[in-house]
Design brief:
heterodimer, A: 649 residues, alpha+beta, FAD/NAD(P)-binding domain, Flavocytochrome C3, Chain A, domain 1, Methane Monooxygenase Hydroxylase, Chain G, domain 1, 3 domains, 5-stranded antiparallel sheet, 17 helices, 19 strands, globular, B: 244 residues, Ubiquitin-like (UB roll), Fumarate Reductase Iron-sulfur Protein, Chain B, domain 2, 2 domains, 5-stranded mixed sheet, 7 strands, elongated, binds flavin-adenine dinucleotide, binds iron/sulfur cluster, binds FE2/S2 (inorganic) cluster
Amino acid sequence: MAFQIDNLTTMEAFNTKIPDGPLFQKWTKYKSSVRLINPANRKKIEIIVVGTGLSGASAASALGELGYRVKSFCYQDSPRRAHSVAAQGGINAAKNYRNDGDSVFRLFYDMIKGGDFRAREANVYRAAEVSNQVIDHFTALGVPFARDYGGTLDTRSFGGVQVSRTFYSKGQTGQQCLLGAYSSLNRQISRGNVIMYPRREVLDLVLVEGKARGVIARNLITGETERHGAHAVVLATGGYGTIYYLSTLAINSNASAAWKAYKKGAFFANPSFIQIHPTSIPQLNKFQSKLTLMSESLRNDGRIWVPAKKGDKRLANDIPEEERDYYLERRYPAFGNLVPRDVASRAAKERCDAGYGVGDTGLAVYLDFRDAIKARGIKTIQDRYGNLFDMYKTITGINPCEEPMRIYPAGHYTMGGLWVDYELMTNIPGLYAIGEANFSDHGANRLGASSLMQAAGDGYFILPITIGNYLVDEIKELLISTDSKEFADAEKEVIGRLEKLLMIKGKQTASSFHKRLGEIMWNYCGMIRNKKGLEKGLSLVRDLKDEFWKDLNVPGTYKELNMELEKAGRVADYLDFAQLLITDALRRNESCGAHFREEYQTSEGEALRNDEEYAYVAAWEYAGEDKEPVLHREYLKYEEVEPKVRSYK
Amino acid sequence: MHFTLKIWRQKNSLARGSFETYNLDDVSPEMSFLEMLDALNKKLVEEDKDPVAFDSDCREGICGSCGMYINGHPHGPVPAITTCHLSMRYFRDSETIWVEPWRAKPFPVIKDLIVDRSALDKIQIAGGFVSVNTGAAPEANSLPVNKEKADEAFDSSICIGCGACVAACKNASAMLFVSAKVSQFALLPQGRVEARQRVRAMIEKMDELGFGNCSNSGACEAECPKQIKLVSIARLKREYYKSY
Ligand SMILES: Cc1cc2nc3c(=O)[nH]c(=O)nc-3n(C[C@H](O)[C@H](O)[C@H](O)COP(=O)(O)OP(=O)(O)OC[C@H]3O[C@@H](n4cnc5c(N)ncnc54)[C@H](O)[C@@H]3O)c2cc1C
Ligand code: SF4
Ligand code: FES
């Protein structure tokens, strides 16, 4: 097996740039000593931000406010449609408005613990630190967060924690935060500080003398490729959950930009850490193109159960109380229905695999609001979750106030991403990654409502400060010319690949390959993994890749609007990326967070970490087409918290 | 289920379009309208034909990408949902379904069912924001907001920018869309500060871009997938008169 050779390289590959000093002073110290660029010079500097989700839109607007010249890209027709818009449940902050003992440290600790001790302390602490500013800022931007009768902001609890720190706008928090960020982006566009390039797909990164200096984008309407130069490039391209085909992500979400950066030398960290969300509407038909999430916030008031008797086919409402198994409350009395996502997902799979699942397929469990409606009244429950209930009813035809919801786990969030240092810079000088596209804050499992927080924190409050420390040395570079050989070569390569995809002229569609890839990934590299399965998955992906390059069909040309060609490019990248993902899962011989290897579990079926050997970030380096990637290990040092067995019992 | 589809095909913004007829079998009632079109496209691509181009992304009714005229209604015959949420169980077996792009002067057709809605962004760029710089915000709870007002602001803020209201309107008016944003900010103290400039800037831009006027026929409200109400147009008008 090729994958047992250990290409161990040394720690020197990394400079994490984590400032010295105690954890709680690092960011303050960094900010007060970081080099600054004067406003007149900022006007001469161009920055490309790829992505207009919460991280990209906030970064572009904050950089625009500082006076940089920003070029912002997204593949949708409007920046407002980035998938952050779909986030439902809420956004965390350590405000302690409830007087329930919350603090920056506690939020930090919950994230580190929730991430199963595989995240970097310094970054996580800083994310918690800026969380309060994020809430202040959104409120000032006119984001209509839920309020109490006295007019102050309301909060609710989310999985994996015992305080109430989640701010929300019904079940549409992501939409409201994103539209807030979109409005600040628009303000900068109106001032001429940001130029918006919608319907552009970034297809390659351009390096000049080892530094990120631009991108090659394809205009999705005309099909033409374009060269864009800048002094720095920020990737805010979101997650790659669509590697499972069916997931809670937007159907066009992809890993292509990050993958191209990887091929140009950026390290990809922990690619196999993918969160499977416990509460999504189960698949209803075989043509289904995506899965719809039912927010985790529902677990505040909903109780999860299956029939205590195997294969019980009675209607949910006909099953008496004593014949229901509230398995989360039973197994995890301290956290009950609010255990972290990875734990809840595996518990659901365990029950269904054991034959207790409900619905036609047996691949579902109940999420029941009966008791909450009894206790708090239907109005309160409607107020909290009205739009989620409506959405559930629209899709399934069932009213969750009358009958419990049916839910099942779905691919949802990617903790893995491009490796970044404390400044959010990848190992390629001038290339940054923010939001879901980087790896740094959520370890092996993300806590609910902490991604919006991280994405906005990265974009508004962290990157705009740290990027200056790099750009200060770049002032001498005047405009970045796109006439150089580097740009020409990159563009040629992009066009070459488009042509190659068009020339196959086989029989099958890109989506049909995507679907099959998704099935392989879900079956062999999903919620529960083992060595044999992963090896099998790897060889299946390789076969599928061969078949793809022989039997794909894409009608039309690349010089026009061609959605099949867009899809084909994304699937082609996924077929490569999937191999890296499986390799990462294979090489991590432990269970941690969302990465559950069957071989490594306690007698009670809980994840068994191996801190001695695996308390590291696996940062992969591209070694060439069909060559085994090189593993670099960034060992995680815990100074403030002591890694413990994560227990929610 | 089986359907006869009459779909508007148009190669690009300059070409002339026409309806093409397609027959599709094996549609399951659980499929969404877009999944049905996916199935059609799969068939077309396998025959090496040009698939029908349409926008979509989230496929859960929130991003506002999708949208088309279906049997004479924007987002189809079922009220209060987007095209991606429209289930095939709402159609009769063997029905003929007519599918067209948004028809409105400010939304030129790009290809087939895809139109250019960038005019909506331009209206937002003209004034759909609160001018606060990053770092300048006061503590979030320093300004209490009446809960009912906040809830009302939320009800306006949920517009997804799909453009169905414009497409539904015989005047191609964008009033419902504009009123949603203006209302959200008008109801919140954070937005009041610039209320006058905002409403003028957005209305002026809307006129400049060729959107028509509102003649109170209410088609927008009836077709809006997010149920933005006509009262918000009333509020927009009040805000506009107040601004002079
Ligand atoms: C259904 C759902 C519910 C969620 N609920 C919550 C929640 O309640 N709380 C929470 O904290 N988190 C939640 N999350 C997670 C959270 O929403 C995301 O992690 C976060 O919004 C990601 O933001 P982002 O800016 O990194 O990326 P995104 O918002 O995904 O934006 C990606 C951007 O990159 C662009 N892009 C991608 N590739 C390219 C390319 N090649 N060229 C050009 N542009 C490109 C896209 O156009 C888009 O603008 C949820 C996620 C989902 C899917
Ligand atoms: S007001 Fe309604 S119909 Fe108009 S853009 Fe907004 S959501 Fe769409
Ligand atoms: S695809 Fe997003 S609203 Fe329909």
